[in-house]
Amino acid sequence: MGKLEGKVAAITGGTRSIGRGMAEAFLREGAKVVVNGRDQAKGEAAVAEMGGGDNVAFYAGDAATQATNEGIVDFAIERFGQLDIMCLNSGGVKQTAPVMMMSDEEWALEVDWNLNSVFWGMRKSLQHMVPRGSGRILVTSSVEGKLGKPGIPGYAATKHGVNGLVKAAAQETGTSGVTVNAILPGLIETDIVRETGPASAEMMGLPSYEAMLELFTQESAIKRCNTVEEVAAVAVMLASDAARNFTGCMFAVDGGTMPY
Amino acid sequence: MAELEGRVAAICGGTSGVGLAIAKAFANDGASMVISGRRAEKAPAALAELNIGDRAHFLQGDGTSQDDCEALIAETVSRYGRIDLLVNCAGGSKDNAPVVDLTDEAMEFGLKVNYWSSFWLTRAALKHMIPQNFGRIMYISSVEGKVGKPGLSQYVVGKHAVNALTKCVAKEVGALGITVNALCAGAMDTPMMQEAGPAAAESMGITYEELLGWFAQESATKRLVTVEDCALVASLLASEAGAGITGSMVSIDGGTAPY
Question: How far apart are alpha carbons B162 and B83 in whole angstroms?
Answer without folding.
Answer: 21
